[in-house]
Specification:
Blueprint: H1 3-34, H2 39-58, H3 68-72
Helix pairs in contact: 1-2
Length: about 80
């Protein structure tokens, strides 16, 4: 029965990821209605989100920890990327 908690954890994780995708789509739809996003960009984003959702539903994914500041860093880090 050790698989049950991990299966439940994975289901909870998948549900949370699906909700996050839904929130991102909501934001994109609102941006489109406001004229902030082109229809072509919205279409691509929706397709990309549906592709992500399919992978999440299949369970064939691995979450990686990312540093939010790393994506915003313009290379001004004091540490070398490849020591």
């Amino acid at each position: 029965m050790t698989d049950s908690p991990s299966t439940a954890d994975q289901a909870d994780e998948q549900e949370q990821l699906a909700r996050e995708i839904g929130e991102e789509l909501t934001d994109a739809f609102v941006a489109y209605v406001r004229g902030d996003v082109a229809f072509e960009d919205l279409t691509f984003g929706v397709f990309d989100a549906l592709s992500d959702l399919h992978v999440i539903a299949s369970g064939d994914y691995v979450l990686e920890d990312t540093d939010d500041e790393a994506g915003q860093d313009d290379g001004d880090s004091d540490e070398p990327e490849n020591p």
